[in-house]
Inverse folding.
């Protein structure tokens, strides 16, 4: 299967640069995965589309202020983009500077805080704080919310709240991109969902910078996915099994929740899983757990548009995306949503 099979033309003005004033005020495009039929809704209509006994599975990861602006000891500017925190002193990071960064280089922040570049692993560098400083302190003092590259403005204090789900768990901090399907839920909507008898479960996947990396091979089967850490516990596994036993649906909130559930069910039946995943879901994949998906719109030729195509069919997805473009839906992280059932 070719990468170009998942291409589409998106007018740049449809890429949402700001969140709407209210989280749940976005639009919702419902797509019936077997017929390809679409229906234009508002996101709050999700309550009418869910049935008592259904299970929503959310990713409760919390986004870190991963983008740090600093300078090299030589005086040149450098951007440190934390990909994964390894411990209080060490992290894997992308480094952006006018000149190539040498191993052993020192990166300086305001005051006494410094870090050094210790190694390189593929596209990432290993960095380590010195002078006893903790990474968490550095990020809180010097970090910015890591907005995606297609949002062309600088992050501001408003993004500290809005580029974070309302259910992000402080104990599950580590993502460098938000699980954006969850950004549409506010506390009032979550309370209404619970009152209707719709269950909720929480998994964790720390979204990595690799989520924005393009597919570089023409044959998508040759693409190697980046690694992301996830956790699915026994309680989630039990809820999934109970939901299906009752004849109700498991609906993932976001592609990261899909990757959690399907990774945990790699052997055919869902079981607890903690560790890295490189699961690549594209057409031909047989889903083991999910019956539906709430998701945002994804980039052309991306692994995520391939994932949703595996659930609803490539032609159905591309037709739905064209409908969304014609109807002026807002795309990507701060944009509108889809419900695939």
């Amino acid at each position: 299967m070719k990468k170009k099979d998942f291409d589409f033309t998106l007018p740049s003005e449809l890429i949402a640069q700001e969140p709407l004033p209210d989280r749940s005020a976005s639009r919702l495009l419902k797509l019936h995965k077997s017929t390809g039929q679409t229906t234009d809704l508002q996101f709050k209509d999700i309550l009418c589309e869910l049935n008592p006994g259904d299970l929503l599975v959310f990713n409760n990861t919390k986004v870190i202020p991963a983008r740090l602006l600093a300078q090299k000891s030589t005086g040149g500017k450098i951007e440190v983009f934390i990909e994964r925190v390894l411990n209080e002193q060490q992290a894997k990071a992308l480094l952006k500077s006018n000149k190539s960064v040498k191993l052993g280089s020192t990166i300086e922040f305001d005051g006494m805080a410094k870090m050094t570049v210790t190694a390189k692993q593929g596209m990432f560098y290993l960095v380590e704080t010195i002078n006893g400083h903790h990474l968490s302190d550095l990020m809180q003092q010097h970090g910015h919310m890591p907005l995606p590259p297609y949002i062309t403005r600088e992050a501001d204090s408003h993004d500290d709240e809005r580029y974070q789900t309302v259910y992000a768990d402080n104990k599950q901090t580590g993502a460098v991109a938000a699980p954006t399907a969850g950004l549409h839920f506010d506390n009032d909507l979550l309370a209404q969902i619970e009152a209707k008898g719709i269950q909720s479960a929480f998994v964790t996947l720390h979204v990595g910078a690799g989520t924005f990396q393009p597919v570089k091979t023409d044959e998508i089967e040759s693409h190697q996915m980046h690694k992301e850490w996830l956790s699915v516990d026994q309680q989630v596994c039990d809820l999934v099994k109970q939901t299906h036993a009752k004849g109700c649906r498991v609906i993932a909130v976001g592609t990261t929740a899909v990757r959690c559930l399907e990774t945990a069910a790699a052997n055919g039946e869902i079981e607890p899983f903690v560790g890295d995943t490189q699961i690549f879901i594209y057409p031909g994949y047989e889903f083991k757990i999910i019956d539906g998906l709430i998701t945002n719109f994804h980039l052309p030729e991306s692994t995520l548009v391939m994932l949703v195509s595996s659930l609803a069919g490539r032609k159905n997805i591309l037709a739905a995306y064209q409908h969304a473009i014609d109807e002026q839906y807002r795309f990507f992280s701060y944009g509108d949503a889809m419900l695939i059932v």
